[in-house]
Design goal:
With 275 residues, the chain is α/β, with parallel strands linked by helices. Helices cover 39% and strands 19% of the residues.
């Protein structure tokens, strides 16, 4: 029986991963910021609940102690300075994992476009920095990074943006530069990949994970609209700046305002699997 720590346990991915790990017979320790709130989860009585603030090194160290494996499912994104929060969080986790002698750490990250790093969005740059911190500061511990683009399923931040834009814009005004491709992946497949990572024997490395189809973002919007039984004609608008797109998308959706600009930046590049 593997002792597994799941961080971000009540989040979109973590709350779905925990039942999968329990089904595999693992002992699961769920790290949460508010244990009282977490007790409303149906699986709460089947796991070991611990309070952890990823910016508080002492609580991170206590949460990691005695674990064989750790799932790092934390990403700030919200807030004006999410890159600093991401960096400090990763440093705390890397130090704790190294000190505890954990066997493997699994990190869910974002796909990295095949472009010079200087052209990467702040969102992806931060994800890549976290990956490097976790890998570089944990000598002797295997770090497996799964990189995914849009995760499809109700509640996923990226997917909710697609859903709400499709439902709330009778006519979709799309910028002429939004012809980059994306390779979505279903949340059930992400969970399977994460669970399967525990049986991988390779050294530290990253894996790109995606569904079977690659498509332009405009086609993804159209695909959702048709699946939802909606008629949503698209009108291409030339020269529409990305910051304007971010403001409009933020006004239309319920996603926190600081989150949308970070996601919109990534629309300029193909978000598809390389390996």
């Amino acid at each position: 029986m593997t002792k597994v720590l799941v961080t971000g346990a009540t989040g979109y991915i973590g709350s779905r991963l925990i039942p999968r790990l329990l089904r595999d017979g693992h002992h699961v320790r769920a790290a949460v910021t508010n244990p009282d709130k977490a007790r409303s989860k149906w699986w709460a009585d089947e796991v070991e609940l611990v309070r952890m603030d990823v910016l508080d090194a002492a609580t991170v160290e206590a949460a990691v102690e005695g674990m064989d494996a750790v799932y790092y499912l934390i990403h700030a994104l919200k807030g004006e300075d999410f890159t600093t929060t991401d960096r400090e969080s990763a440093e705390n986790m890397a130090w704790a994992v190294a000190a505890a002698g954990v066997d493997v750490l699994v990190y869910l990250s974002g796909l990295v476009p095949d472009v010079p790093e200087a052209e990467l969005s702040e969102h992806i740059t931060s994800r890549l920095e976290v990956e490097r911190i976790l890998t570089g500061a944990t000598a002797g511990i295997r770090v497996l990074t799964l990189r995914a683009a849009i995760v499809t399923g109700s509640g996923s931040t990226s997917f909710e943006v697609v859903r709400q834009i499709s439902e709330r814009m009778p006519v979709q005004a799309v910028p002429d530069w939004m012809d980059s491709r994306v390779q979505p992946i279903a949340v059930v497949d992400v969970v399977e990949a994460l669970a399967g990572a525990l049986s991988v024997t390779s050294e530290s490395r990253s894996y790109d994970v995606g569904g079977p189809e690659r498509m332009p973002y405009t086609q993804l919007l159209d695909r959702y609209a048709r699946a939802a039984g909606l008629t949503r004609p698209q009108v291409t608008v030339p020269g529409l700046p990305s910051d304007v797109v971010a403001v409009l998308a933020g006004a239309i959706t319920d996603v926190p305002g600081s989150t949308v600009p970070a996601l919109v930046e990534s629309l300029h590049h193909d978000m598809v699997c390389h390996d």
